[in-house]
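Researcher: Let's run the pair from yesterday's discussion. Sequence first, then tokens, for each.
Model: Starting with the first of the pair.
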Amino acid sequence: MLVRLHDTLRLRTTPSIFFASALVIILFVLGTIFFTDALDTGVSAASEWLLTNLGWFYILGVTVFLVFLIYIAASRYGRVKLGPEDEEPEHSRGAWFAMLFAAGIGSILMFWGVAEPVSHLGDPPRASLGIEPGTVAAATDAMNFTYYHFTLHTWTIFTLPALCFAYFIHKRNLPPRVSSIFQPILGERIHGPIGKLIDVVAIIGTVFGVAVSIGLGTLQINSGLAQTIGIPESALWQLVIIGVVCGLATISVALGLDKGIKVLSNINIVIAVLLLIFVLALGPTLFMTRGVFESLGTYIQELPKLALWNDTFANTGWQNSWTVFYWAWTITWSPFVGIFIARISRGRTIRQFVIGVLAIPSAFSIIWFGVFGYASFDIEFNQGGGLVDRVVEQGDVPGALFAFLEHYPLAGPMSVIAIALVVIFFVTSVDSAALVLDTMNNGHEDFNPLGQRIFWAVAVGLVTATLLVFSGSGGLEALQSTIILVGLPFFVMAYFQMYALMRALREDAGILPRVRVRRWKKVLPPEEVERREDGNDAFNEHYDEAEEIVVVPEAIEPAPEFADPYVDTHAHKHHREGTLASRTGSKARHYDHG
């Protein structure tokens, strides 16, 4: 029946995956609208239980993933090319970075660039350790946590699945699906019920993860429009904004990767850099420059503590609202970002991939948050303040950027530019998400009906509207509660992804042969050798007479340079003793196997 319906609709997907994913999304939307209170109560209770009992699991997981990526890049597998050995990277480094930036964290920088440092300045994460709000110590700690949340650890969550996708798609030529990563474990069962279940979970999680991002962007755009042209912050206008963003994304989807996402990504990065230069040039330039370098140093120093800090003694719940939310949110849309990054990274080695995807966006994030963070601190410490009151006391997190720009010349025009930048960022996110979701449903990247990609753009918009407007709690609280639940299975799957990648690399690259070293005779002090050679020694019966004992160290077997691994591996082709010809045939080697 599903196949008949699939063909009637002129689709080109795997019917069971497509219809199962679509059904869950439709049921969620309808259930939230018609059973608002019951669903809100259930989601809130489950989310609270997870935060209380498994928050540590989320925090530990990301650090484990980071250590794994560093290891894999530094190992011999770092030289493995993600694609044919003779193929060069498809995109230049500049275009590659721009697409990484726009699809991954560009929209996050706009929302949290001011809000995150200011929030932690007014409400220090480690207040239980004696850090007072509004102090220099609070500002220092605010930057530590901001870097922790938006540099290496965030990009680790994107990089792990992206690397797995890149290897299994470009090296093993498997379908661009999450289930393909588990091929070393499942084998051909990736096409069976287990593989399809993995793909359905990944697709649904990706829709919710992207929806949370669009929801945050909608709140920010609504706040900016309210401040610049007086549009009220209301559910109606949020629905209008979601409709506009998804409509523009649909147009970009129709244009394709090169004409749509790539062009928008380049526009994004140019405008973002110009906004950064504007703030750096017209703000306290020296203060910000010094602050970026200083905060980088304190972040590196504090990173081991931050990476494993769980607020064990105070148990204030702060980390549940921030770190755990970030990690759960990020990992839900990591399959979408992962496939997208894998697709644009064909032809690069694993080492280039890991260093590029981890380091380049992290470096830009350090500069971005450093500039906006220290500019915000300057406003609080030297210009009468106001940001902490608005963000922390009034809870206007979405309006933080626009309140910040009021302290700069051309506040009105710059706010309009910032709004346009946020819109473009989110159009790019919906566009690339629709493309990737369609790819995961199809299992290939060849031609597919345009209507399928449009469906996923609309689906993201529907879920965003449902979470923001129709859920019981609404706003940021609804986004947080929902995404923490959705993120749990993704953390579990990530551990299996690490195992699957290592197993595949060992199978494909081969395990290194044992290192053969020479064997040595037993060395004893001269006086002990004399005793054992003396026939009157009362302990002679305890010695192994066959064991050769010497005073001067003496090798039994040849030096390692004569131990040819080729000869050792293929010894069955040769006589085990005597003369063996070298691979070059230029001369014979005398090889004693002992």
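Model: Moving on to the second of the pair.
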Amino acid sequence: MNRKISFAKQPPDGSQSSWYGLRAAVCVTVALVVTAMALCGFFLVRVFDARTQERLVAFQSLEADLWARMLTARVEAHQRLLTSIAQGVHTSLLDKPEVLDALMQQDGSMLRLFESLHVALPTGSISNHGAVGAVAEVDTPGLDALRRTIADGKPTVSFVQSVEDAQHLRMLLSVPIRRTDGSVSGALAAIVKLPLAALMPELVEPDQGLQYMLLDSEGLVLAHSDATQRWKNVSDVMGVHASDWKALSKPSSPNADTRIWGELLATRVGLPLPQWQAVVLRDMSADKQMDQGLPLKVWAGLGGGALLLTLLAGWMLWGWLAPWPKKTGLKVHGVQVQPEHEDVFEAQEQDTSSAQPQIIQAGAMAMFEGVPSAMLLEQDGQVIVATPLVAVMLGYFGQDADQLTLAQLVESPGALSTVRQALEELGSYEGALQLRKKDGDWVLVKVLAWSSSQLPSATLWRLHLPWRQQRGAPLPADAHVWRDGLTGLPNREAFMWELQSWVFDSMQPVKSDPSSAMVRVPSQGCLLFADVDHLGMMNEVTSREMGNKILRHIGRLLASQTQPLGSLARLGGDEFAVMLPGISLAHVQGLGQALCDAVWRWQPSWGGERHWVSISIGVVAVDAQRHTPEQALRAADMACYEAKRRGRCQVAVGQITAHPTLEV
């Protein structure tokens, strides 16, 4: 006879006070949960406000820095133009002011970009020249600037106050006029009229809490996003925060300096040459949540979390203070009875033994990429990380270098299987493989690969070109004579020797063993010619020491990017050349553009001011058995000149005139 026993939950045995204590504990728990959620809401608001403030500080610092760069670039552009004009002014023209008047009146002349020109001589005489209408006169501060330019031989920038003109800002730029021996023969000054609308940042949407100010060295507001605030002192514009502003040091650095005064966020950036300050003010009260409260969705989320925690805490307390009978069985009239339905919970273990990809730390990756060799780390056929020289050797740049696989690089699956078998049996492989380049060509590469017993699925490969290990015609004795003293690179004579050696090595007989290191140098290849843009002007604006620093850095950059492919030399001045046997024209174009981008991103600093440096590159395809070294170098130089003519900081392709076959 089956007896069914009901297991409906019954209150535990005990006094009535136990139930009162249970209800009190549940009420206290609910109160604690609600209080905790209220505190969470409060601190969440504080966290939101702190994050908002950090975001506004970072955004405003970047915005002020970009605005200051834009203003500096506009001033530097006019000053470079005036410097170019001063370099073209012959000493004999200083006594002929009518010539400059004629140039100012001529349509299409660069001089018409200025409102007026002024030529000052050491004797104190000043000639004024205007484009149209009356000629503007130079005020007392402008005369002082001209005297400083003649005395110091350095360019100056001063402000020309014109209160009656509410739409423009005028500046006086002055540069020295030098004789052929370098001495100062006078000063050339120009008044530039800049529209205020072009000086202020363009806003997509108007922001009432945002102000832009341009201040001179005395704190006068030269330009303001609110036209009514112009020509006021910065203390009057700052209002209650005037004392905070006065407490700051008067000059400001070329980097963004951000201060927080209550709800006001103030950022200033210095413009070194005009000694101005670009200031951005923002009222953060509208962006903070403390006064506005959290959004309705956030409060709904907090309420749902509070309800869930309350129910969970009540259920746990109820089960702890009032435990119900166990389901292991009940005694009925002295007989042990098992429940008809018993819940059984089985714990299941999940298999977590699946292999996970190896995580490479950022520091190890940085060290691996700094190795001056073409090396790659692959796992299960996927290239995890590779040194930049791998991309240079095979021509993979940008996103192509981040998605490489061994099946994509190795010529045939059979060759890859041979490498895999050697790694499994011996732990290493050494031999020659045909690898596919980005341009579709195949290149014979000497490979040294090895794997670790701890992680056999991952292997480390080292690649180098076999013909780079040989040298058919070594340099003569006294190797220091063949080196450039500034960069340590080979000089022009050594480079011409390398070109002649290329011709000699390309005509050697082919080795029967393709795995031998002594493989004939390819007769087809390319020649790369690089020239630094505006290095002479950089020397004048900064110093020759800065120019030498630029040449040394570019020499190191070219050496690091072209080391596994060919020979590099400094031909003299600001010219470099690279001999690249076995490299296609498409490959060297990608390499040249990568070099241009790397130099442009450098931005060296001199005297607290950042400068942009660029190079122009010309490339030509070379056949060592048909073209002479002089022809190849001349054609690459002309291609580099074409790159400069197109606008600089780019790569141009040239062509070598056909030459009769050379005889050895």
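Researcher: Give me one sentence on the second I can quote.
Model: The longest strand covers residues 184-195.
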